[in-house]
Design a protein that fits this description.
Chain lengths: ~375, ~90
């Protein structure tokens, strides 16, 4: 059964009117009033492909429709129009007005429409795939809301929407919500997320911690549940259609000075936890700020480029640029047998002697160092 | 707060004094000489890798050690120039 959507005007139209058929759920088409004032709908032709490609016309069966010019506001509802095909894909339909009855090639008033057929039926505007539109957090109600579009269960496939929370406890992910889609259309699910309990003792337990909320839509196909021979789940059984996530950030400490605080530890301070107040006071007095730590690094960088330390740094960096694997100035080619049996043993022997001599000379050098 | 203020004040003074010194820059010929030396070393490295690496390591260590020792002597000489209460 064919369902119509919007139509397209022909470039060959001489007398034309705009019309947009009304689609019925049963596949019937209702034309707007005044439709038959100028034209007589004569026929339909369907082609498999996207407009304007033209392949072999597909057989079309229609309920014969003729409207009289004398009728000013007719409303014709076709019980059904169907295209004789079982092949899924894109089709375009040509409506013909005036001219010979059921002639698909008459270039008078011609309108075109593109439709698509899949396993679920015909449609002019294809339904969206399952997806998420938004995910939002409400800290006042401690809830997360996800919206999107879902497709209902078919005979062998079904979709599940799952919401998980991770990061609140290291290495642990909790499933907050899961459901199987039973209807096709938009959805909106709201679920409460977890938070750490606030400590009331005089301990150093963190007051809050960041976490992530992840929502996924998986499609399960029972046709590929498991391999009967290996019992291993087929990869086609479970397919990820869409996923989204958001973070729940913890409370950010707002410093009361213009200097940002770096990893500023803070203890709970209150009537029942005076120790924490004393600790916080000590931290405020003596704990170094990020600016101070950065000043040390800046001073180190400055000293490295100023004499006398700058000369040492310059030599160290330059010597570090010498390497033994850069572009060769010239190539030395020797037979492999001579290299393996003459040069390599000679190389190792001389190298060992050099290290031995270095050890003695460095020892003698250290003996004459005066600090 | 107290610690940060004092140390920040001292560091600002030191930064200002050291900033008056000229900046040490590397001569471009020095860099090109390093690149040329690398090319010659690479040619010999293919035949005598152990000797090349040994000599390179010894020379590098010796240069860095002597440079560091000289730097220590210079810095200690500067420190001894400051008058102290006797």
């Amino acid at each position: 059964m064919l369902v119509f959507g919007c139509s397209y005007k022909s470039v060959f139209a001489v007398n034309y009117i705009e019309f947009f058929p009304t689609i019925t759920t049963g596949g019937g088409v209702t034309f707007p009033s005044g439709f038959c004032k100028l034209s007589i709908l004569k026929g339909f032709t369907a082609y498999r492909n996207t407009y304007p490609a033209s392949t072999t016309p597909v057989l079309v069966y229609i309920n014969p429709l003729v409207c009289s010019l004398a009728t000013t506001n007719p409303t014709y509802t076709l019980p059904y129009i169907w295209i004789q095909t079982t092949i899924n894909g894109t089709y375009w339909i040509k409506f013909t007005f005036t001219g010979a009855d059921y002639s698909p090639t008459y270039t008078g008033d011609v309108y075109y429409m593109q439709v698509t057929k899949d396993a679920t039926g015909w449609y002019a505007i294809p339904p969206p795939a399952s997806h998420f539109d938004s995910i939002s957090i409400s800290t006042s109600t401690q809830s997360v809301t996800v919206t999107g579009y879902q497709n209902a269960t078919t005979s062998n496939t079904y979709e599940k929407i799952t919401i998980e929370q991770s990061g609140l406890i290291d290495g642990y992910t909790e499933e907050l919500f899961t459901t199987t889609a039973t209807t096709t259309g938009v959805f909106s699910y709201t679920v409460t997320y977890r938070v750490l309990a606030t400590s009331t003792a005089t301990t150093t337990t963190p007051i809050s911690k960041s976490s992530n909320i992840t929502a996924t839509i998986y499609k399960y196909d029972n046709n590929y549940f498991s391999n009967p021979f290996t019992t291993i789940q087929d990869y086609r059984y479970k397919t990820l259609l869409d996923a989204t996530s958001t973070a729940i950030t913890s409370y950010s400490y707002t410093p009361d000075t213009i200097v940002d605080l770096f990893s500023y530890p803070e203890y709970e301070c209150g009537i029942t936890s005076i120790t924490g107040c004393i600790k916080n006071a000590g931290i405020w007095l003596f704990y170094p700020t990020e600016d101070l730590l950065q000043s040390f690094y800046n001073l180190k960088s400055l000293i490295e480029v100023k004499p006398p330390v700058g000369y040492f740094t310059m030599i160290k960096n330059s010597i570090g640029g010498v390497n033994a694997t850069s572009t060769k100035k010239y190539n030395i080619t020797i037979p492999k047998s001579i290299k393996d049996y003459v040069f390599t043993p000679f190389d190792i022997a001389i190298g060992g002697i050099l290290w031995y001599m270095f050890a003695f000379s460095f020892y003698k050098r250290l003996k004459y160092i005066a600090l | 707060m107290i610690y940060s203020s004092i140390v920040d004040f001292v560091l600002s003074g030191v930064n200002t004094l050291i900033g008056y010194l000229p900046t040490v820059t590397i001569n471009s010929n020095f860099a090109s000489s390093i690149a040329t030396a690398s090319q010659y070393i690479s040619s010999v490295y293919e035949v005598l890798p152990v000797i090349v690496l040994t000599l390179f390591a010894i020379l590098t260590f010796d240069i860095l050690f002597e440079s560091g020792y000289m730097l220590y002597k210079v810095v200690y000489w500067i420190i001894r120039r400051f008058p102290t209460q006797s």
